[in-house]
Design a protein that fits this description.
The structure is a homodimer. Chain A is α+β, with helices and mostly antiparallel strands. In chain A, 36% of the residues lie in helices and 39% in strands. The termini of chain A are far apart.
């Protein structure tokens, strides 16, 4: 695949630890993710009920997203998240977009 | 709340029915969601492993998103999705954004 892809990590978390997950993600984005080849953009969203954090990253190529998942520095942040929450990462394709 | 909010529906689905869920969402967006007060934009994403569909909608106000969830026409589409998949809707706030 050579068109941009979206990596979404849906993270279930105890509400008492939602902020901690956000802090780990933000640190990982600043230190590692944003400097990786093929990085386009990333958005971190927090659910109002505090039970989820959703991390949405766009990459130039699916291979860039996959290489980042296996990069040791990125994996270390993923392990810190997995130690306190339940991540569910995956590669997605945009199938429709509408704007008002 | 009076600032823009993000509504995310994380839909778990049997891979054989991923396209059917996408079709229902797209019809609901065109017929109902995109015409609702406060609608800004919506993106539908399909996981490469076919086990999830993620629907991300931006609204002017949290009340616009909540009113849409209880609108009968919108609820009818939500029921059609729930009949063949497992939706998990929620209101989210953007906590960080980074661009390359």
């Amino acid at each position: 695949m050579s068109s941009p892809v979206t990596f979404i990590n849906i993270i279930d978390v105890d509400p008492s630890k939602q902020q901690e997950v956000i802090d780990i993600l933000n640190e990982g984005i600043e230190q590692v993710i944003s400097k990786r080849p093929g990085f386009i953009s990333v958005t971190v969203l927090a659910s109002a009920d505090k039970s989820r954090v959703v991390n949405i990253a766009r990459w130039e190529r699916a291979d860039d997203a996959k290489a980042t998942q296996t990069d040791p520095a990125a994996a270390a942040y993923a392990e810190r998240t997995a130690a306190i929450a339940m991540p569910s990462p995956g590669i997605y394709a945009v199938v429709s977009e509408h704007t008002a």
